[in-house]
Design a protein that fits this description.
By secondary structure, the chain is an alpha/beta fold. The protein has two domains: about 1-230, Glycoside hydrolase/deacetylase (TIM Barrel, Alpha-Beta Barrel); about 240-280, no CATH class. Helices cover about 40% and strands about 15% of the residues. The chain is built from ten helices and ten strands. The strands form two sheets. Strands 1, 4, 5, 6, 7, 8, 9 and 10 form an eight-stranded parallel beta sheet that branches.
Length: about 280
């Protein structure tokens, strides 16, 4: 069977919240597992070169896939096919630009922010040459899935079923590492002991292996990337200045929460109460 740990959201910097990439790599080498980072495309210009080098050099342990576009609430819940096609193109263009800047390749596998998506979103991914989606929620907002686009479930460590699925995608956020890496390595050790034949690899490689017949009909990675040349990566043309400003403020506020507030339970709870009050008004 095949397995992969997917960590949502973090920038490719030395530290993000409770995550440190070099420490994570040490744990992967020692306990034998693999991590794919679900990378938010709007962060395409913010990667640290040292961490990029780590990902380039240790592709046997690290990879990245696509996590939405801007990570706004329900951004792929729309049923407007034309809008979603443009959003997927923007997300892909940003990932292509990130690869050009850093040399870190990405897999055209989507993890939807908040697990929210529509059938139209799946269709937009299919039209843009994506391998598939890996998602915590198996249900589209507009009813049963009818597109035939590959969608694989993923599980929190505590929710992994007794009968292990193949492939097994495990979802984490940086908070899972709050008490150190022991919680994760204990889980991985138990999993490796339970299933001796686990092959740990990246989300994209797993999808390519599972979908070998259909994947062979997809264009090679990088094909058509020149179509993104000159595209407005900032998204100002797509959203307008006002909406784009909201997106940036939300992104930086989320990072402030993850990097600083998450280390103090009282401050984090206070901030959540203030945010909840703000949203109601």
């Amino acid at each position: 069977m095949h397995a992969c740990v997917i960590i949502d959201d973090p920038l490719l910097r030395e530290n993000y919240g409770f995550l440190n990439y070099r420490k994570l790599l040490e744990m992967m080498d020692r306990h034998n597992f693999y991590t794919t980072i679900a990378f938010i495309p709007v962060n395409y210009s913010r990667t640290d070169e040292g961490v990029a080098a780590l990902f380039r050099e240790r592709s046997d342990r690290f990879s990245i896939c696509v996590h939405g576009c801007d990570h706004t609430g329900g951004e792929f819940a729309s049923t407007d096919r034309a809008y979603l096609a443009r959003k997927v193109k923007l997300a892909t263009a940003r990932m292509v630009e990130h690869e050009r800047r850093t040399g870190v390749p990405f897999d055209r596998a989507m993890v939807f922010p908040q697990g929210i998506f529509s059938n139209a979103a799946l269709a937009a991914l299919k039209e843009n040459g994506y391998l598939g989606a890996v998602n915590t929620e198996p249900q589209a907002v507009d009813g049963p899935i009818v597109t035939g686009f590959p969608l694989f479930p993923r599980y929190k460590p505590e929710d992994v079923p007794d009968r292990l699925p193949d492939p097994l995608f495990i979802v984490l956020h940086h908070e899972y590492l709050k008490g150190g890496y022991g919680r994760l390595t204990d889980f991985v050790d138990a999993l490796n002991a339970r299933q001796k034949a686990i092959q740990w690899s990246g989300a994209g490689d797993i999808l390519r292996g599972r979908l070998s017949d259909s994947a062979s009909s997809l264009p090679p990675s990088g094909t058509g990337d020149e179509a993104f040349d000159g595209m407005d990566m900032g998204g100002f043309e797509f959203y307008g200045w006002k909406e784009n400003l909201k997106i940036r403020v939300r992104r930086y506020a989320s990072e402030f929460r993850d990097d600083y507030l998450s280390r103090n339970d009282f401050m984090l709870k206070t901030a959540k109460r203030i945010l909840g009050h703000y949203r109601k008004h």
